Amino acid sequence: NEYKSYLRMAPVAEDAASNPLSRKLQKILSLKLDQDPDLLLALKGLSSVVQTNNLRTRRNLRGEFEKRSVELSEELCDSFRHVNSLIDRLSDEITDISNTCSEMTEKLASSRSQMSGLLQKTSQIKHDSEEVEMKREVIGAFIERYNITPEQSAILRNSQSVNHDFFDVMRRIKTIHQDCKTLLQSHQSTGLQIMENMALEQETAYQTLYKWTQGECRHLTSEAPEATAVLREALEMLQDRSPLYNACIEELCKVRRAALLRMFINALTKGGPNGTPKAIELTSHDPIQYTGDMIAWLHQAIASERDFLVGAIGDKKKTTSALAFISEGICRTLKIRVEQVLNNTEDCLVLLKVCNITQFYITTVTPFIGSKAPLIALLMDLKVLGQQQFNRYIVLTVARLSDRSELPNQDLVPTVAFQEALHLLKVVLNTHDISVVSNTNPSESMAKLLDVIVDPVVSLCQTSALLLHTPVDRSVYFINTLTCVINLTALYEHTDKKIAQLNRQVDENLGKLVKLQLDHIARTVRLPTLETVTLERLTVASEQLDAALCNAEVLQLHQCRCLSTLRHRSFVWERACAGFLDLYTALYNSPSNQDTLNKSPDQLKELLQ
User: Fold this and answer.
1) What secondary structure letter does DSSP report for 239?
2) Can you list the alpha helix ranges (DSSP code H) found in 526-557?
3) From CA 138, how far away is CA 456, in angstroms rounded?
4) Pick from 154, 345, 351, 468: most CB atoms within 10 A?
5) How far apart are CA 416 and CA 33, in angstroms?
6) In this predicted model, what pLDDT tens digit does every residue of 172-190 receive, in sequence order?
């Protein structure tokens, strides 16, 4: 600003157009300093050099600038000097590095030539290592497939804690054993070695399982044992070793046999818990209930044992044989009591009911324990004994009635003794008919019963008939009594065979009556035979016939009118009349006799009807 003021105060001596200084000054004055950044930057730099603005300073400004320029040049030279020294050092270091790199390159080249063999070996070793790793993995997979771990082997030797892990290891051994069969096709020696090792492990496992199962079976002594899943699986595993399996089943059966006998004796003497149900021995005064309660208890117990054994064993055939063995333990106790009942009972109906009860439980229990079981054999023997006792007392009863046999009345109706025997037959058949026996062959059962009871009654009929004096009386009485027996047995099923047998006896005696009736008619009319015929005899016969036809009752035996059924009476009369007509027709057909016999066969037939 001062410079500008100075310029304004200076006189303008020359024309602006001709004075260069003037032009410069004008140019300078025309500049807008605040808008020129370069000038502002230069003035700012100048302000840092010039501290005071005075005349001396302005005069010495150039010298100051030159002095300042020299100082800056010296400083720059010093800086370059330092940089040069650094560059020289860097050059030396680069030279050293270059020399070192050259040496290293030479050494690397030398090392590369020397290490090429080592690299090849390293590569081979790496390849071999990969092969070894692959083989290790293959061997690991092979061992995992064809071997068991030490922990699994320890499980097989611990008989105190057999569980599902134990069975998993056993199944694993079986799988390995099966896989070795395929391995034998390509690696026989290895397969045989593995199979041998697995066989040893398997035998150890079976021995451990056998000991554990034996111990478990010995604890199954309760009234309602439960077959655990582990025990079922253990028995299933042991089936591959028949001796061990059979030994375990035998041990189980022995334990359950003793338990069943103990429970049976408790049921006989003590009854159930708190006296409910009551002891079976308390009903020993009633043979039917006593026997039924004992066998019913056995049936229920056997059913429970069967459910237990099916859950434990599973095999139906093995279960049946096991039940047969278990139930054998109670045979002696049951036999003593039932035989005592049968031997001390004289009532036929009681014996028959006991036999029916026995037969019912034979049919019911046989599917559980088999037809060859000792208990079934015992029940069959008891049934036979009961039937023998029944037969014996039936015979004794009928024999006592026979001893009381009296002469039948003139009307030839059954005697009192026979009516008592018939009542016994009715009661026995009713008892058999309403029994709960589920018999596979009811016809055979009824046939045997009828043979036992009907045959003695028929013998009683024959005994009573023999007391009569004439054959006609005996035949009529026998027919009447047999008819009563037939009518009674016809009320029941499966009696057709016996009825047919009785009807044959009735027909036989009816045939006898027909012959006797025919003889009576011929004798009454004095009808001659073809060998003895004469005119006089024919005349007498014709007269007698006419007289008899006026009173037909003369021609009929009065005993035949005592036949209990109209069918029998008609049968005897019609067959006798037919026989008489045959004799009469033979005589009438002779030409010499027609004049004497005044009635033709057709006329006589109408009159006889």
Assistant:
1) T
2) 535-550
3) 93
4) 351
5) 175
6) 888 877 777 777 777 777 7
